[in-house]
């Protein structure tokens, strides 16, 4: 017995409340169900409740799960992507959230070209600069965007960040605010071929604050499906 239905309706209320508090409309925020480590049955359940956006962070899991669904879902690659795996998922993913180098972007461009696709991507920023896992430093963002914008088979849709895990989500408010500022600043520069409308930020522990600060895509796993079991 899962609590997916109850969890989703609770999250939906909180998303709506966060939108209302800041004068935003619910339509401005997309809820991505992060289904990593979770079985196909759980994904079926959220689809039944109206979810269309599915987030996975491993190529292998996308390859396993994608063929199980005939319906038109929107698949988000939210995890670190190695260049040698791009070709395995290029025809399956709608949005790649985790582009943080020109090398990766160039590879995506090449593989997208082969299948006649314009791949939508987000630029991942490591704004907290905490023991730097993946993502770009703030100072390098504009230059990378200018370089990637020249690649014809890529469309930069916006920015993404993974904020640190904190007990009190208020601690991440400054990070989300800074992300929105970078987003606005870059849009003002009118870079050819760059029309950013997507800001992917906010997870189970901090999505309400992220929405208050301008997020347009929240990526939620644990709050929907419960704790992940890694074995
Ligand atoms: C796992 C994951 C999430 C979801 O995290 P929860 O805390 O379970 O909501 C969001 N974004 C990325 C990139 C992830 O890897």
Radius of gyration: 17 Å
What are the bound molecules?
Answer: pyridoxal-5'-phosphate
The string of secondary-structure elements, in order, is HEHEHEHEHEHEHEHEH
Oligomer: single chain
- Spatial arrangement of strands, main beta sheet: 7-6-5-4-3-2-1-8
Average pLDDT: 95
Shape: globular
Distance between the termini: 21 Å
Report the biggest beta sheet as strand number plus sense, adding barrel if it closes. Answer: 8 strands, parallel
Helix segment tally: 9
Structure description:
- The protein is of the alpha/beta class and 231 residues long.
- The protein is built from nine helices and eight strands.
- The protein has helices at residues 4-21, 40-48, 59-65, 86-89, 102-114, 141-148, 173-188, 207-212, 222-225, and strands at 30-34, 53-56, 74-77, 95-99, 119-124, 154-160, 198-200, 217-220.
- An eight-stranded parallel beta sheet has the order 7-6-5-4-3-2-1-8.
- Strand 4, helix 5 (102-114) and strand 5 form a beta-alpha-beta unit.
- The two termini are 21 Å apart.
- The mean pLDDT is 95.
- It binds pyridoxal-5'-phosphate.
- Pyridoxal-5'-phosphate binds next to strand 8 and helix 9.
What's the quick description here?
With 231 residues, the chain is an alpha/beta fold.
What keywords describe this structure?
9 helices; binds pyridoxal-5'-phosphate; single chain; 231 residues; alpha/beta
Blueprint (SSEs and pairs):
Elements: H1 4-21, E1 30-34, H2 40-48, E2 53-56, H3 59-65, E3 74-77, H4 86-89, E4 95-99, H5 102-114, E5 119-124, H6 141-148, E6 154-160, H7 173-188, E7 198-200, H8 207-212, E8 217-220, H9 222-225
Parallel strand pairs: 1-2, 1-8, 2-3, 3-4, 4-5, 5-6, 6-7
Bound molecules: pyridoxal-5'-phosphate (PLP).
